[in-house]
Structure of Transcription factor E2F7:
Amino acid sequence: MEVECLALKDLTSVGKSFSVPKEDGRQGEKENVCLERRRSTPLKPSESGVPVFLVSRKASTSDLAHITPIKCAGLAEPWSPTANLKVLISAASPDIRDREMKKVLFRPIENDVDQVVDSEPAVEDAEVEDPTQFEGAFEEEDAEKKPSRKEKSLGLLCQKFLALYPDDPPAHSPVWISLDEVATNLGVERRRIYDIVNVLESLTIVGRMAKNSYTWYGRQRLWSTLEVLQRRGREQGYHLQMDLPAEARRSGLSREEDGGDGDSGNAGGNRKDKSLRIMSQKFVMLFLVSKTQTVTLDAAAKVLIEESQDSSSHSKYKTKVRRLYDIANVLTSLELIRKVHVREERARKPAFRWLGPVKFSSSGKMESSLDVAQSEAAASEDFRKGKMARHSSFTVTPAAAGVQRQVSSAPSSPRHHLAGIQNHSLDYSRTTTTNGPACQLQCGGSTDSCLSVPLYAQLTHTASSSLPPASTQPCPEHLLVPSPHCLAYLPSLSHPSVVMLYKPPEQQEWAPEGQRSAKMESEDEGKRRRVSGEGEEEEEAVLKKKSKSGSETSEKIGAQSQREAAMFSETCNTSAVSWPSGQQRATESRAGNSIGENTQPSHYLYVPNSAGLNNFNFLIPAGQPAANMSLPPSSVPTMALPFVLVPSAALSHYPLVAGGVQQTQTSDNPSGLRFSLPTMMSPAAFMVGTAPHSVMEASDVSVQHLPSPVAPELGRHHVSAAGTPRSPAGPRQNVGVSTPEPSTPHTPKETTASSSKEFFQTPGTLGSVVSAVPAARKRGSAQRRLDVGHSAAP
DNA sequence: GAATCCCGCCACAGG
DNA sequence: CCTGTGGCGGGATTC
């Protein structure tokens, strides 16, 4: 946290950012790469403020090389990453600013709140153990303090990771995640990302698509997954164990699992059996079936050990506990659990208390405090089950095995997605917008690589942060919310393209996840099931899947995307919008179709970039009212046309106008775009993206000439630079966007990270992000250290 | 001294 | 064989 704090400071106070170069001995170490960078950029780890997001590998690589390392401190360069942040912040309404500051500064990542719980039944939250822990951060400042261990914690890292993506991404527009990119951007070793991703995957927050490629589902499926886990936990008798006294626990462990595992068991089984993923699911199950919803590490470790049939040697125990800490950190970041202490017998034992929902309706609804959800996600659940089933231990449920991870390394693309895509007929006419099915912009390039979407921006209003469970219905809040739009940069396409998804106001309501998933996924499920047969064979199923073709799907997708691209339609509603220069072919399409009509109303703007995205670097929110940021979501009407893509070249000609964005403002005019180019010009305008999710670092982008996918969030997120007249960003057209707004509130708390770069950057690392990316990949995993540093180094 | 958990070696697995 | 994954546990930090 400290880091963030610093960052914030930096933001506010100009000079600092550049000030102290820090370097610590440690830094040199692999993970936090970029020593050099660091040096060059005084910014301490924290500095890198704006998370940059991903560039496609391709682009990144080449571009990166060129990239200038971070600017020198001395530079007036407005666009240093930091500058960017500053701009954003300044631009942001005070509220936002404050909010973020709080989040960043005060919110301890891991174990933030440590509470002491009385013995199990009486778990209660006690005081926070270390309220002050984060304070230190402020002081340090530039100090070269080596990033403390905490700063590098998995929990913090996970938060950063989560902050990059929306909690509740539109169902139809999956966000692709490239592990390499994430690792690079966060400035950590890939290995660490695996830890996070494995846990997230266990909860279906992400899904693995192919090697190095994951899809971000956000919390859409989370609730259903939890429900499934709860069920499984019960089936496996975890509830019995959890309720038993400690001693008793051991004896009675679930045999089902053991037995069930049987195969998996391969004694020793495949590694998969010991997978962090599996452990994570089991760990979660324990919470879900526990009456007290509090699980001590000790108990969990024991349970897990038994299941694994490992002899419970002490070392095994220790190892399990270590893993559980890893898992717990991620879950804590997700705010699904919180650390507490349970007083048992003699000492107080570390434990975690479940903060998530515990009751689910059979339908998959979650009845929890959170709220209601309605969902018909039954199908989707199955889907999830399947996924979970990967492990033999989960055999219990017959759920579709097929669903399981699609592959290990094979580039399998999840079928459900594909299905969705294929099925949809895209309707390019805007008129029907409301019905737009989700367009699955999966754009996969024809290449496997499919998409990594560097940025993903979603408009969500803050309120949305506490999203309803995935399958739930549209929550009222959402309705109010500005339509979420997201921008995706699809590097994998032959030509990098930008796709912007947006939902017309009318359609604001998100389709209930459940519905979507149910339909799409269910189909898949069905297929898979057929293939795999019952749940028991999950393992097998997996194999089968693997064998399956990911490639096909990807290709299909790619084809589709191209097709879509081809469909360039100006006709679309763009009515209001005039493409800046007709040059680009932009298509605004709306998918029409199949999936919940109203629910997924999305339109998307697809900009094939034959020429190279460079030409289309900017996405400008058409009507972002700068002011709106502070306004309640409801107050902000969403415009029909959220943003305009402006070729970068074009922009250069325009004078920067301060506050332009604001001018544009107002939503009402659906049709009429109110923006003026000049307005757009203002840096601020560019900053639009949603905060956490889409963060792209301006500097990086610009340097790279990558198309900056900006994700403008409609609504308030856009910070219009308005206020900030110019950050001298002039040169940097590409500014990535960053959103200050923590729109993604993972939890009620609003976890979202601040947009500050620092937040995303691992403390020891530098913004290095930029550079290294591709290179890293080449190296062996073990060796692959992000060498951002050197790439970055001038 | 115990609790945490970062870090990265190294084995396994897919291609 | 190379690279992606990820198990594992030594040992550094933090409590």
User: Anything to note?
Assistant: Residues 314-333 of chain A form the longest helix (20 residues). Residues 154-247+272-354 of chain A form one domain. Residues 1-144, 249-269, 363-756, 764-794 of chain A have pLDDT under 50 and may be disordered. Residues 129-130, 133, 148-150, 179, 190-191, 194-195, 198, 211-212, 271-272, 274-276, 315, 318-319, 322-323, 408-409, 777-781, 784 of chain A lie near DNA strand C (CB under 10 Å from a C1').
